[in-house]
Amino acid sequence: MKSSNLLSRGILIGAIMALSIWFFYPLDKKIKLGLDLQGGMHLVLQVQTDDALRADSDSDMQRLTTDAKEKGMTLAPVRLSPTSFQFSGLTPESKDALGQLVRANLPFWDSAESGDRVVLSIKPAEATKIRELAVT
Are 111 and 102 in contact (CB under 8 A)? Predict the structure, then answer.
């Protein structure tokens, strides 16, 4: 009885091994490899440097409009690009006051006057620095 029990166990183990080999051979046709295992995945990351410039300029413009409001001026900036804003409808006195605020609080900004409007833009060297910091 022991030999028949041992024989049946051997047959069972052999059948399991045969089925295992039959199901898993050849491996490349039975197992589906994902993209990462096939070598077909390519990932490119990109930094949105314009978003960094926009965030920095928004912060500076918010500070400028707050400081102007404390001095009794109401400014409504209009964004021209990620690095520039425009103020329009200014009187000569308000343009002078705005120029003083820009020189005192925003040393990395240039201003250009044209009629009743003033365009403020970040200096190119500062814009490059902000872009490099965003990438880093």
Answer: yes
Rounded Cα gap, residues 56 and 85, in angstroms: 12
- 82: helix, strand or coil: coil
| H or E stretch covering 67 | helix 49-70
Closest CA to 126 of 50, 53, 24: 53
**Residue 86 and residue 94 in contact, taking contact as beta carbons nearer than 8 Å:** no
Q: What is the mean pLDDT of each run of 10 residues along the chain (136 residues)?
A: 80 91 68 66 78 90 89 86 89 86 89 89 92 88
d(CA 19, CA 96): 89
Residue 23 is encoded by which pair of tokens?
A: 């199901």
